[in-house]
Amino acid sequence: MNTNSWNDWNRIVLKVGSALIAPSGNGCSAHQLFPIAQFIIECRKQGKQVVLVSSGSVAAGRHVFSNPDNPSLALKKAMAAAGQSEMVSTWDRLFDFHTAQILLTHGDLRDQERYHSIRDTIMTSLEHGVMPIVNENDTVTTDGLKVGDNDNLSAMVAAAAGADALIMCSDINGLYNKNPKIHEDAELLSVVSEITENIKEMAGGAISSTGTGGMLTKLQAAEKATAHGITTYIVNGFEAETFSKLVRGENPGTVFTPYKNPMQDDLHWLTHTTRAQGEIIVDQSGAVCVLDDEKTLSSDQLVDVKGNFNIGDTVLVKTENGNRVAKGVANYSSCLMSYISDQHEPNETAFPTIESLIEDKNIAVLKEA
Length: 369
Known about the structure:
Substrate binds at residues 55, 138, 150. The protein has 13 helices and 13 strands. The chain has 369 residues and is of the alpha/beta class. It folds into two domains: 6-268, Acetylglutamate kinase-like (Carbamate kinase, 3-Layer(aba) Sandwich); 276-365, Archaeosine Trna-guanine Transglycosylase, Chain: A, domain 4. Strand 11 (314-319) and strand 12 form a beta hairpin. It is globular.
C-alpha cells in the first residue's frame, strides 16, 4: 500500500461531506454529486474498488421537521434518521450498480471483534461488486460513542478496508499555509511528507456551516491514514476538474505521503482507532519497562488507576507526572487494579499488566513518551 500512483491503487476510500450532499442544509441535491459519481464509475471501470464515506443525513433530513434552526439532540437524531434514507437514495439514483448502507458508531470501531466484523462486511461487499456507503450512525450515537466527524471516520474505514488511497473532499483546493478565504497571498501545499505541529497550526476551524469537520479534522484523518501506508488527498469536491486530474494521475490538491514503514493492523487500530477507557499510573521503572519493550510491568510498579474499565478495554499507561507512555488492552478490570494499587505490600505476581495487554503482544508506544 506504500504507493502514490493512481495506476497502483486497487481500493479507494472517498469521503464526501454535508456541504456537497446538502449544500443548503435543506434536503439533498444531486447537482454537485455528478462529477463525483462519474469518478466512482470510472474507478470501477478501471477495476478499482471504491468505498464511499458520505456525511449529510442531518442536513438532508432537516427540511422534514418544523423549527429546525435550533434542534435539540433528539431532533437531530430524528433528522438523521429521516435524512439517511434520502441521502442513500440520492446516491443510488446516480449509479447503475448496487450499494450497501453501513452505519457505524465509535463503539463499533473500538471493539476489536466488531472492528474485524466491519472489515469483513466491507470486503465481502466489494468482492461482490457492491459499493459500501458508510456514515456515522447519528440516530443512536452518544457523546461516548461518537467519532464526531466523517473525516476521521473515513481514515478508520480506510485502515479497516486496507485501502491504497483516501480522498477527502473539501470546499477549497487543499491545505494552505494560511486561510485562503481571508488571506489573498495564501499558498497551497501540494505535497506534505510529514504532519508536524507546524502543519497542524496551518489548519483553522470548520469552514462549512453544514458540516462538523474542518481542516484540522482532515489533518487528523491524514495522520491516521498515512500511518497505515495510505496515500491521502485533500481536494476540492466542488470542482469537476478535480476528479479528471485524479484519473489522469495528477495531484489536484494536497497529497500526504504515506509512511515508508506502515504500522501493522492491530497496532494501528490500538493507536488510531480505539479510545482509552481509563488510565494505569505507573512509576518510572514501569515506564522504562514499557518503553524498552520488556513487557514485564508488575503490580509493584502500579501506582494508581483512573476511570472504570473492564478486561479487554483499552487503557493509557501514564507516569506519575502525567506523561502518556503507551496504550494497551487491560488484562484486568479497574476494580481489581485499584485494589492492587491500594495494597501496601502488593504481590508482584498478582498483576502482570503489560505482558499480556493485547493478544499479539503489541503495545502502542505514544509519541510524547
